[in-house]
Amino acid sequence: MTQTLLDYDAEAGRYDATRGGVPRARAAADAVLCLVPPGARTLLDLACGTGLVTERLNRPGLRVYGADASAGMARKAHERVPGGIVLADARRLPLPDASVDVVSAVWLLHLVPFADAIVAEAARVLRPGGALIVTVDKDAAHDVGSDVDRVLRPYRTLERSTDRADRVTAEAAAHGLDPAGETRFTGHGQGNTPRRVAGNLRRGHYASWFRGDAATVGALCAALADLPDQDRPRDDPEYRLVRYLRRGPRA
To answer: How far apart are CA 54 and CA 51, in angstroms?
Structure first.
Protein backbone atom coordinates (compact mmCIF):
# COMPACT_ATOMS: atom_id res chain seq x y z
CA MET A 1 0.00 0.00 0.00
CA THR A 2 1.47 3.38 -1.00
CA GLN A 3 1.22 6.24 1.46
CA THR A 4 -0.28 9.49 0.20
CA LEU A 5 1.75 12.38 1.59
CA LEU A 6 0.18 15.76 2.24
CA ASP A 7 1.26 18.80 0.29
CA TYR A 8 1.89 20.92 3.37
CA ASP A 9 2.27 24.15 1.39
CA ALA A 10 -1.23 23.69 -0.05
CA GLU A 11 -2.60 22.40 3.27
CA ALA A 12 -1.41 25.38 5.35
CA GLY A 13 -4.55 27.47 4.91
CA ARG A 14 -6.92 24.85 6.32
CA TYR A 15 -4.57 22.77 8.45
CA ASP A 16 -5.64 24.12 11.85
CA ALA A 17 -9.34 23.54 11.28
CA THR A 18 -8.75 19.90 10.35
CA ARG A 19 -6.42 19.14 13.28
CA GLY A 20 -8.42 20.00 16.38
CA GLY A 21 -7.74 23.73 16.33
CA VAL A 22 -6.95 25.70 19.47
CA PRO A 23 -8.10 23.11 22.07
CA ARG A 24 -5.72 20.47 20.72
CA ALA A 25 -2.89 22.99 20.33
CA ARG A 26 -3.34 24.31 23.87
CA ALA A 27 -3.32 20.78 25.32
CA ALA A 28 -0.12 19.97 23.42
CA ALA A 29 1.61 23.21 24.46
CA ASP A 30 0.66 22.78 28.12
CA ALA A 31 2.04 19.23 28.07
CA VAL A 32 5.32 20.36 26.49
CA LEU A 33 5.72 23.18 29.02
CA CYS A 34 5.28 20.84 31.96
CA LEU A 35 8.36 18.92 30.73
CA VAL A 36 10.55 21.97 29.97
CA PRO A 37 13.35 22.14 32.59
CA PRO A 38 13.01 25.10 35.00
CA GLY A 39 16.19 26.85 33.89
CA ALA A 40 15.57 26.65 30.15
CA ARG A 41 15.88 29.93 28.25
CA THR A 42 15.50 28.85 24.59
CA LEU A 43 13.16 26.37 22.90
CA LEU A 44 13.10 25.29 19.25
CA ASP A 45 9.82 23.78 18.04
CA LEU A 46 10.55 21.45 15.10
CA ALA A 47 7.99 21.02 12.30
CA CYS A 48 6.10 23.88 13.88
CA GLY A 49 3.50 23.93 11.09
CA THR A 50 1.25 26.96 11.31
CA GLY A 51 2.64 27.90 14.73
CA LEU A 52 -0.62 27.14 16.54
CA VAL A 53 1.22 25.14 19.20
CA THR A 54 4.43 27.21 19.02
CA GLU A 55 2.76 30.48 19.98
CA ARG A 56 1.37 28.82 23.11
CA LEU A 57 4.77 27.63 24.32
CA ASN A 58 5.18 30.77 26.34
CA ARG A 59 6.37 31.27 29.88
CA PRO A 60 8.43 34.01 31.53
CA GLY A 61 12.08 33.90 30.52
CA LEU A 62 11.63 31.34 27.71
CA ARG A 63 12.39 32.46 24.15
CA VAL A 64 10.58 30.27 21.59
CA TYR A 65 11.53 29.66 17.96
CA GLY A 66 9.99 27.44 15.30
CA ALA A 67 11.31 25.60 12.25
CA ASP A 68 9.42 24.00 9.38
CA ALA A 69 10.43 22.62 5.99
CA SER A 70 7.23 23.86 4.30
CA ALA A 71 7.29 27.46 3.08
CA GLY A 72 3.49 27.65 3.30
CA MET A 73 3.47 26.47 6.89
CA ALA A 74 6.38 28.72 7.86
CA ARG A 75 4.57 31.78 6.45
CA LYS A 76 1.54 31.00 8.60
CA ALA A 77 3.71 30.43 11.65
CA HIS A 78 5.49 33.75 11.12
CA GLU A 79 2.15 35.53 11.53
CA ARG A 80 1.86 34.03 15.00
CA VAL A 81 5.53 34.11 16.06
CA PRO A 82 6.99 37.14 14.24
CA GLY A 83 10.75 36.94 13.84
CA GLY A 84 10.91 33.53 15.47
CA ILE A 85 10.38 31.17 12.50
CA VAL A 86 12.99 29.68 10.19
CA LEU A 87 12.49 27.61 7.03
CA ALA A 88 14.59 24.52 7.70
CA ASP A 89 14.82 20.75 7.39
CA ALA A 90 14.76 19.16 10.87
CA ARG A 91 17.71 16.99 9.81
CA ARG A 92 19.93 19.99 8.96
CA LEU A 93 19.20 22.86 11.33
CA PRO A 94 20.96 26.20 10.73
CA LEU A 95 22.27 26.25 14.31
CA PRO A 96 25.66 25.66 15.94
CA ASP A 97 26.32 22.73 18.25
CA ALA A 98 25.02 23.00 21.82
CA SER A 99 23.07 26.20 21.16
CA VAL A 100 19.54 25.67 22.57
CA ASP A 101 18.08 24.44 25.85
CA VAL A 102 15.00 22.58 24.55
CA VAL A 103 13.94 21.00 21.26
CA SER A 104 10.29 19.98 20.92
CA ALA A 105 8.80 17.83 18.17
CA VAL A 106 5.05 17.28 18.45
CA TRP A 107 3.46 14.94 15.87
CA LEU A 108 6.59 14.74 13.72
CA LEU A 109 8.51 11.48 14.10
CA HIS A 110 5.59 9.28 12.99
CA LEU A 111 5.42 11.13 9.65
CA VAL A 112 8.93 10.50 8.34
CA PRO A 113 11.23 7.55 7.57
CA PHE A 114 14.22 9.47 8.97
CA ALA A 115 13.14 9.91 12.60
CA ASP A 116 16.60 8.74 13.70
CA ALA A 117 18.25 11.62 11.82
CA ILE A 118 15.93 14.13 13.53
CA VAL A 119 16.80 12.77 16.97
CA ALA A 120 20.50 12.94 16.12
CA GLU A 121 20.22 16.54 14.93
CA ALA A 122 18.27 17.55 18.02
CA ALA A 123 21.00 16.05 20.19
CA ARG A 124 23.62 18.02 18.28
CA VAL A 125 22.02 21.42 18.90
CA LEU A 126 21.08 20.77 22.55
CA ARG A 127 23.25 22.11 25.32
CA PRO A 128 24.39 19.65 28.03
CA GLY A 129 21.45 19.19 30.37
CA GLY A 130 19.03 20.29 27.63
CA ALA A 131 15.84 18.44 26.75
CA LEU A 132 14.35 16.83 23.67
CA ILE A 133 10.55 16.58 24.10
CA VAL A 134 8.75 14.43 21.53
CA THR A 135 5.48 12.63 20.92
CA VAL A 136 5.83 8.86 20.55
CA ASP A 137 3.53 5.94 19.71
CA LYS A 138 1.03 8.10 17.81
CA ASP A 139 -0.41 5.21 15.79
CA ALA A 140 -1.05 3.22 18.96
CA ALA A 141 -2.78 6.21 20.58
CA HIS A 142 -5.46 6.23 17.88
CA ASP A 143 -6.77 2.83 19.00
CA VAL A 144 -9.16 3.95 21.74
CA GLY A 145 -11.13 0.70 21.88
CA SER A 146 -14.10 1.92 19.85
CA ASP A 147 -16.25 -0.04 17.42
CA VAL A 148 -14.17 1.51 14.62
CA ASP A 149 -11.01 0.16 16.23
CA ARG A 150 -12.47 -3.32 16.57
CA VAL A 151 -12.97 -3.36 12.80
CA LEU A 152 -9.43 -2.10 12.13
CA ARG A 153 -7.44 -3.92 14.81
CA PRO A 154 -6.71 -7.17 12.89
CA TYR A 155 -5.12 -5.07 10.15
CA ARG A 156 -3.13 -2.74 12.40
CA THR A 157 0.62 -3.24 12.85
CA LEU A 158 3.01 -1.01 14.77
CA GLU A 159 6.15 -2.62 13.36
CA ARG A 160 6.65 0.19 10.83
CA SER A 161 5.91 3.05 13.25
CA THR A 162 8.94 5.34 13.12
CA ASP A 163 7.96 7.02 16.41
CA ARG A 164 7.68 3.81 18.42
CA ALA A 165 8.93 4.60 21.92
CA ASP A 166 11.49 1.80 22.06
CA ARG A 167 13.03 2.91 18.77
CA VAL A 168 13.14 6.58 19.74
CA THR A 169 14.64 5.76 23.14
CA ALA A 170 17.36 3.58 21.58
CA GLU A 171 18.26 6.28 19.05
CA ALA A 172 18.25 8.95 21.73
CA ALA A 173 20.60 6.88 23.91
CA ALA A 174 23.01 6.49 20.99
CA HIS A 175 23.27 10.30 20.88
CA GLY A 176 23.64 10.99 24.57
CA LEU A 177 19.97 11.51 25.47
CA ASP A 178 18.35 9.68 28.38
CA PRO A 179 14.60 9.41 29.16
CA ALA A 180 13.61 11.65 32.06
CA GLY A 181 9.86 11.88 32.46
CA GLU A 182 6.74 11.89 30.33
CA THR A 183 3.13 13.03 30.24
CA ARG A 184 0.01 12.59 28.14
CA PHE A 185 -2.51 14.98 26.63
CA THR A 186 -5.82 14.77 24.81
CA GLY A 187 -5.95 15.08 21.03
CA HIS A 188 -9.09 17.21 21.01
CA GLY A 189 -11.09 16.88 17.79
CA GLN A 190 -9.21 13.78 16.63
CA GLY A 191 -11.81 11.15 17.46
CA ASN A 192 -12.47 8.94 14.44
CA THR A 193 -15.80 8.52 12.66
CA PRO A 194 -16.61 5.47 10.52
CA ARG A 195 -17.14 7.59 7.41
CA ARG A 196 -13.90 9.55 7.82
CA VAL A 197 -11.82 6.42 8.45
CA ALA A 198 -13.25 4.71 5.37
CA GLY A 199 -12.37 7.75 3.25
CA ASN A 200 -8.85 7.85 4.65
CA LEU A 201 -8.38 4.15 3.96
CA ARG A 202 -9.35 4.67 0.33
CA ARG A 203 -6.87 7.56 0.07
CA GLY A 204 -4.02 5.52 1.53
CA HIS A 205 -3.56 7.71 4.59
CA TYR A 206 -2.77 4.87 7.01
CA ALA A 207 0.29 3.36 5.37
CA SER A 208 2.32 3.64 8.59
CA TRP A 209 0.14 1.03 10.33
CA PHE A 210 -2.25 -0.57 7.82
CA ARG A 211 -1.60 -4.20 6.86
CA GLY A 212 -3.68 -5.17 3.85
CA ASP A 213 -4.27 -4.79 0.13
CA ALA A 214 -6.90 -3.10 -2.03
CA ALA A 215 -9.36 -5.94 -1.54
CA THR A 216 -8.95 -5.63 2.22
CA VAL A 217 -9.64 -1.89 2.00
CA GLY A 218 -12.91 -2.62 0.21
CA ALA A 219 -13.98 -5.16 2.83
CA LEU A 220 -13.07 -2.84 5.70
CA CYS A 221 -14.95 0.07 4.16
CA ALA A 222 -18.04 -2.13 3.86
CA ALA A 223 -17.71 -3.15 7.53
CA LEU A 224 -17.28 0.47 8.58
CA ALA A 225 -20.36 1.46 6.58
CA ASP A 226 -22.40 -0.99 8.68
CA LEU A 227 -21.50 0.75 11.94
CA PRO A 228 -24.05 3.11 13.52
CA ASP A 229 -23.63 6.88 13.79
CA GLN A 230 -21.46 7.29 10.72
CA ASP A 231 -20.48 10.88 11.53
CA ARG A 232 -20.29 10.71 15.33
CA PRO A 233 -16.69 11.07 16.53
CA ARG A 234 -15.50 8.30 18.82
CA ASP A 235 -13.28 9.10 21.82
CA ASP A 236 -10.31 11.41 21.30
CA PRO A 237 -6.86 9.80 21.50
CA GLU A 238 -4.45 10.43 24.38
CA TYR A 239 -0.98 11.27 23.05
CA ARG A 240 2.23 10.32 24.86
CA LEU A 241 4.97 12.93 25.24
CA VAL A 242 8.46 11.90 26.44
CA ARG A 243 11.39 14.02 27.62
CA TYR A 244 15.02 13.02 26.95
CA LEU A 245 17.84 14.92 28.68
CA ARG A 246 21.25 15.59 27.10
CA ARG A 247 24.02 14.07 29.18
CA GLY A 248 26.50 16.42 30.81
CA PRO A 249 26.26 19.30 33.26
CA ARG A 250 24.21 22.33 32.31
CA ALA A 251 26.43 25.20 31.23
So the answer is: 5
